[in-house]
Amino acid sequence: MIEPMLATLVKEKIHLKGKWIIEPKYDGGRIIAQREGDKINLWTRRHVNAVHKFPEVVESLQNNIESIKWVLDGEITVAGGFRELLKRNVEDNFKISILSRKMPATYNIFDILHLNGEDLTKKSFIERKAILIKVVKLNEHIDLVPFQETSDKEWKNHFKEYLEYGFEGAILKKADSPYEPDKRSYNWIKVKKQDTIDVYVVGATKSTGSIPFGALILKKDGKFFGKVGTGFSENERKFILNILEKNRAPLDIDLPEKVKSELLITTKPLLAEIRVQEIINDSPRAPVWVRFRWDYQPDFSTSYN
What we know:
Elements: E1 6-9, E2 20-25, E3 29-36, E4 39-43, H1 55-64, E5 69-77, H2 82-85, H3 93-102, E6 106-115, E7 118-119, H4 125-135, E8 142-144, E9 148-150, H5 155-164, E10 169-174, E11 184-192, E12 195-205, E13 216-220, E14 223-228, H6 234-246, H7 257-261, E15 263-276, E16 278-280, E17 283-285, E18 288-292
């Protein structure tokens, strides 16, 4: 399979120069779809072939792409978003058959990488879009991701419109950029709406490399709430680990066995703020560290010396 090109999530001010395209960000699962003759594959980012789980999408791809040799990039969705899409992750053929009718999926295509043996990845994004529009026939299980030209002055208005329509954000793509497999590129910029919530930090896991710790262990509503491992620099990790060391205490919640095996340190509950996309099965999806809530816990030690 071809590794997907990845967008860079940007939270600071964005300044666009040149010609850019903006697309809505769907709340689904990334899929590289590939056809060689009669064989179709649906590859996830984890290199899992999900072709048998979405028979309705496979049938539509067989009948509505004007070629028998292609590679497409897109997002697979169901009504209700990613939370509902997880329910399609079953192996039983009978359940798959039922779910394909009760909870049908749509493959929302935004790029084409190969066509009839030709590698299109070196062509510009806008050239690939033109080719894509010509070869895809839309139906209830195949759609093209809408796109429009934008600018430094206009993209925020487009972003707000997408949020109002229920999308989870926007992707900004440089119009003349090639497709860069397996690369997180600033030619694609991701802007997402995220909400912040309060949690308690109760420890940290070991690092597999040279950084001070792997992730912070979280507690919410008196129980384990997952981990957060992004959002801080190496220097911030050192500062945070120093705070944890100065607030060591026995753990007051049960942890999954896997987390126990990774344990580096446990602390008294320290109130903190994280940014999350949503909460699924009592765990945060895509959590990002924001800060300790110093204003609500003046008694814990924060000195760094």
